[in-house]
Amino acid sequence: MPPTSEGHNMNMGPGHMGMGVGTISLATLIDFIVQRTYHELVVLSEILPRKTDMERKIEIVQYASRTRQLFIRLLALVKWANSASKVDKCVEICNFLEQQSMWFVETADTLSRMSRETLVNARLPNFSLPCAIDVLTLGTYPRLPKCIREKIVPPDPITPTEKKQVLQRLNQVIQYRLVSCELPQQMRKLKIENGRVKFLVENEFQVTLTLMEDSPVIPWRLLDIDILVEDHETGDGKALVHSLQIGYIHRLAQSRLLDNDKPLHDLYRVLHSFCQSLQLEVLNSQTQKLIRERLGDSLSIDEYAMGKCLTVSYWKDHTKKEKEKQQDAIRYKLSVHVNEEDDAKQLCVSHVPSMLPDECRRIGLTIQSEHLSIEKLLMQTIEVRTRSKLKDLSYSIQRFIEGKCEIKDLPLALHVPVVYPCTSSEQLRITVDAQRGILLASLPSLELPVMQDLEETLNGDRKNIQKHLVSLRLQMTILRCDKSVNCLHTEACHSLPLVNQVDHGLDDLPKHRLYVPVPKQPNHYVVACVEDNPPRSVELTYHLLETAPCPAEGTEVEIGEDNSVKTFLKAVRLVPLDTFAFTNGPYTSIYKEPEESEIESFHRKRKLLLGEYLEPVGKKQKTSPYFVTDLVHVVAACEEKLPFVFLGEELKEQGILHTNIQVDKEAMGLVMDIIHFPDVPGVKKADCNAFRKCLLSCKVRSVTKPARFWQIEFLFTNDLMPTQCPKEAGPTQRVICCYERHSDNHQKTVKEVWDEWTSMCNLYSIVKPFSAMITDDQTGVQGITNVKSYNYKRLTVLYGPGYPSLMHVYWKCDQKQFVLSLGREGQASPMNPHVIMATQLQHDLNTSRSLSYVLQILHDTWSPMNSLHKLSSAVILGVGTYPRQSTQGFTVLPQSSTHVRISYRNNYCLDVHFRGNKAVAIRDGAYSLFDTSKATEGFTPIPMLKAFLGMFVDDSVTGSNVHRRSTTEDDNPPSPMVNLDNMDVFNISQSHQSTGSPGGRRAEQIAPSPSTFIGTPSPGNILAAGSPSNPQLHVPSPGSFVPAPSPSSLGIHMQSPASSFISPQGMGDSGSPYPNTGLAMPSPGQRNWPNSPSIQPSPVSRHGMVASPGHPTLHSPQTQLKDDHGKASVMSPPSRTLPQRAWAASTPTLLSHEAFDNLLKQTSLQQLPYHVPLSPLERFLGCKFLRRHIARVILQEKHLTNIQAPEPGVNVFKAETLQFRVSLNSSTLQSLHMKIQPLPEYMDQWSQEEIQIFEKYFDLKVACPPYKSNSLTAFSRLLKAQIRILKDVIQIMRLELMPNQDRSLKWSVQLLLTVPPAYAHMAPAGTPAIVVVQKMILMLQLTRINVPIPQQQPQQQQQPDPQTITIPLLYNIQDNTITLVEKGPTLPNANLQQVSQHLKRFMERFHSSAECAIYPAVRELLTNLVLT
């Protein structure tokens, strides 16, 4: 494109035309071409329709050809312009040179012409020196010629002072003229200023006059006219008079001011006449607009005389005119005209037919010229006409109604109270149609058919108006009844689909009636009938109708036929209802208010007809007249009484006796008393009779708010036992039960009442003996429990030290058993420890039906169960071999109310039995109860458990004179056994069958005592058991817990598996009252041994409780077995030389409650000061868990070699240069320690300091909580490395263990044994973070240290967290180079990129091949790394 721009226009001057140089913008050229093409196309479209078809085709082809040629040339020009830049430059150079040449030639020609022609005759005049001196010295030109001064210089203007004097003089002249002449009355409002006078006639005009001279004969000069008439509705703010019209009026008014004796009068008449004509024109235009846009035929212009009058007709009732064909019908007219008596006054208003003077004054006698509005004038007129029309109508209607008619509201309406008393929403509103003038009748929010007839009567013949008002009154009363029953949640109807209404008593009732369904009671209706009670009232009567569904034929449906949907009803019974009996109860006053006398009623009616009666202000209705109270009372009474009737029938069928329906003594509703309940199945008859004696009364009430339900109130005596609840204090106690009301299923309600009575009776049957025990001081039950609440439905007792825990007991009918729930007393109390064994405790309660038994268990087991809650049950991720698998720490598995199992990481199991005398028996739960040489499926035996538990045994349980075996011998028997450290899973099962014994068969019929399960005496013998004078109760012998040999190993067949755990020591005089039979027995819910002799009958105590069979002096049949096989199995001493001997951990170890709490309480070890507090048991099991994993690692890793340990419980193995010994701390058995010794050939390559650091790192960082197996795996992989690599890693360990040893370091280091979550993209979190193959991977965590604190920072302000970064290092063993592990194209973040660059710079400087590069590189990072 050429370099010309759009702003360069075509330059074709005279000099350029000859040279042929002209330029034009390409955009302009294209614009010209497009405009020419468009112009030709427009011309073609206009001329083608007038030509023939052939000519049109020729023209189109020619146009297309011309346009094509033109655009082809344009295309060629555009293509040429892309390469014409050089030509353009040359053209510009030529143009510039030609222009310069032209200027040179023109200059030479001009100079030559001046020298030859102009300068030849040139002469200079004499210099005017005086004028120059005047200008230079004085600054003026006084010698200017006069001819020039007069023609050019204007005269000096007058001064402001002279101007002010002239105007003031002119004002005086105007004042004199006005005083001397006569002014029109309407032009007295004037203003004189600046030599002018302004006359203002409001809403008409304003004129400005002045005088040209002070001569009295000089006429007024009219300066300005302003017409003030405005049209605010149709004018749209525009001027109503054109400027030409103003000019004409100006000339006309000025002519009237000349040669006139009263010029101002003529001026006012001319302008006033024009303004009135303009006002009439405005009103006429407004009327035409109303007719055209809104009112139409309802408004018409009868006459319009310009400048004289405007007559408008309104209320044109065409319908009435067509019906009656009356030519002389009344027509309402409104006329606006000029005052005929005085033209100077405003426009007048007149009406046809004529109005009263008061009505005319209300509208206005003259037009309001400040706001011309024909619509406003019409509305005022119609309002006055409406008031007059409605007032006449009120006199005609007043005699047919009870209340007073009123005219109010806007638009005006006649309010007629058809019913009395009447609300505003029920009043008949009669209004006048503003357009047609006819009467309109309406009821707010109501549409009745009689309204159309009433409206026709009001606009026509008014003889039948009373008939329509009576019909309206009856229908409105029916509507009142319909609306009144809406509050009862029912829907009334005006008719029913009855098939026998003709032959029924309903046919004799009045036709105005309403059917109200009784709420919640199908097929029952209250029929409300309305009759006229002359002269001005109505009467209501009520009936109760009972119906039955039936088909359209009205026949009864036989049983077995197809029962389709029945849409019809059959009237059965119709019972008249006494309104007084329903609306007045037993508390109604017997005196009535005095009725109005006949004379007073006559005077009131006379005043009412004359419109003089006013209702007293103080006499008000107590309720809304819109609300029919009698109907609501009747329906509500039927709704309340019918359910009682149906409920009473169902109670009678169930054998529950009750009284009739009565009114409650508080007058709050209906009530029905239940006087007798039958016996409860499963409860003794004596308990049922005693419970019925406790019942004082039982009342049934119906409650409807906030929901509909039955309320049953039981009133009991309160002398059973004292409680802590203040609401239960007093001689009586109320129990209120609420049940959902079922209108069609009363059997369910009766069942719920019976279930409630059953649950209270069952609970009473166990509370009664318990109350006898708790009130007896000799039983000692008061010391272990406290009754918080007993409300006959639920029993709440407190137990535990200080009573922090509570237990709720109640009977559940659907399960037919007692339900037990546990909680705590207050928010400050600890959690109830027995929550986990609520199911077992509930089973014991339902089996024994003894509260004292369960409370004794709760009391004896509260302390150990509270200790069990201290165990950590948190789920830990990555502690096992699989990093993504979560493992729970401790899991408590209740087996019975006195037996739990504690599982640790699903590997180890402990059996815990709660004994009496504050003792706990613990054994390894991995051993079978019947063959101790075999382990149960899924668990691993725990080595050295007996030795560990022996550290917590105190003399308070075992006694100081009891001989104990060596724990080392117990945990390590001399007989050859399988190495359990290398055993993972035991999948051995054994079944035992036994025949029943007579004692066992007898035990099935007797409730077990608490000692049967936990070895404690029954509550009936608590005092005797705890007494020091009882010689039969002694401290249990530990020998009773030493198991006898397995009967199966000796070929002896026992009658019961339980007898294999009975020792001779338990049968002697010094035997424990808690036999070891409980240890050998599973939970009560899992006992499958038929006729087992472990449970024997015992004599009944004084309170009805079963005595304990555990004591030998109670003559339990179990101690009197005479079977030879049983004698051989029991009396044989245990042998340690048998290959099938059980391990020591299978024998229970007795611990006191305090020792058991110390075993589970979280503490810290002095050897592990940096670790979190853990319980001794968790530390012991965690160490065992790691030792078991060490054995696996030794077998899996090829670079490790196992060495047979000379002593048990020790793992010994060796690597390439070192030998390792891992063992438990012999003093505590709660921590693992490693001892390292270099092999003899590598003794000189290891220093003692390196060995100690390596050992200390294992103790503090590997064998530590949370005891992760992968940490141990990572540590074992480290042993595969070469000795120089291992020495560098030990130096890193030294920096981690002693971070403050070197002050020059900027970072502290930590060797990560497992992959952190931030590097889950490299390997799953928890995977071993150390890999040693051809290359080695290490993960380090660097933490910024030795950061100076700014002095201006306050000390109390919290310090920010130190900067931390985790770096994965990749060490090439062959090349001795170290870099970052890069997984992917780029590093994750900028910090790692800086670390990578720092390592690269270090490796460029590091060239030592003998020294390992790991430690120098790490120290370089710790010393010089700076992250930005």
Descriptive overview:
This protein is of the alpha+beta class. Helices cover 35% and strands 18% of the residues. It has 37 helices and 42 strands. The strands form 10 sheets. Strands 17, 18, 19, 20, 21 and 22 form a 6-stranded antiparallel beta sheet that branches. The protein has a 5-stranded antiparallel beta sheet with strand order 29-30-31-32-33. Strands 38, 39, 40, 41 and 42 form a 5-stranded antiparallel beta sheet that branches. Helix 8 (243-256) runs antiparallel to helix 9 (263-295) and helix 13 (450-459) packs antiparallel against helix 14 (465-484). It is flat, with a radius of gyration of 61 Å. Mean pLDDT is 78; it is low at 1-21, 557-563, 960-969 and 972-1142.
Give me some keywords for this one.
35% helix; disordered N terminus; alpha+beta; 6-stranded antiparallel beta sheet; 42 strands; 37 helices; 1428 residues
**Helical content, roughly?**
25-40%
Radius of gyration (Å): 61 Å
Alpha-carbon distance between the two ends:
55 Å
Mean pLDDT: 78
> What structural class do the secondary elements suggest?
alpha+beta
Shape: flat
Please give the largest β-sheet: 6 strands, antiparallel
The counted number of beta strands is 42
Total helical elements: 37
User: What fraction of the residues are assigned to beta strands by DSSP?
Assistant: 15-25%
Low-confidence stretches: 1-21, 557-563, 960-969, 972-1142
Write the layout of secondary structure elements.
Elements lengths: L13 H4 L8 H22 L5 H30 L2 H34 L10 H9 L8 H7 L7 H21 L9 E4 L2 E6 L3 E6 L10 E7 L15 H14 L6 H33 L3 E7 L3 E6 L3 H7 L7 E6 L10 E5 L4 H7 L10 H24 L8 E3 L4 E4 L11 E5 L6 E4 L7 H10 L5 H20 L28 E5 L6 E10 L3 E14 L17 E9 L2 H5 L14 H13 L18 H25 L3 E2 L3 E2 L6 E7 L8 H10 E9 L5 E9 L14 E9 L5 H29 L10 E6 L4 E5 L5 E8 L4 E8 L13 H11 L2 H18 L6 E3 L8 E3 L1 E7 L2 E6 L3 E8 L3 E6 L20 H6 L4 H4 L8 H5 L26 H6 L7 H4 L7 H5 L20 H4 L26 H4 L43 H8 L17 E4 H8 L15 H21 L4 E3 L6 E5 L3 E7 L7 E7 L9 H15 L6 H10 L4 H15 L9 E6 L18 E2 L2 E10 L19 E9 L4 E4 L9 H16 L8 H11 L4
Antiparallel strand pairs: 1-2, 2-3, 3-4, 5-6, 6-7, 7-8, 9-10, 10-11, 11-12, 13-14, 14-15, 15-16, 17-19, 18-19, 19-20, 20-21, 21-22, 23-24, 24-25, 25-26, 27-28, 29-30, 30-31, 31-32, 32-33, 34-35, 35-36, 36-37, 38-40, 39-40, 40-41, 41-42
Helix pairs in contact: 2-3, 8-9, 13-14, 17-19, 21-31, 32-34, 33-35, 35-37
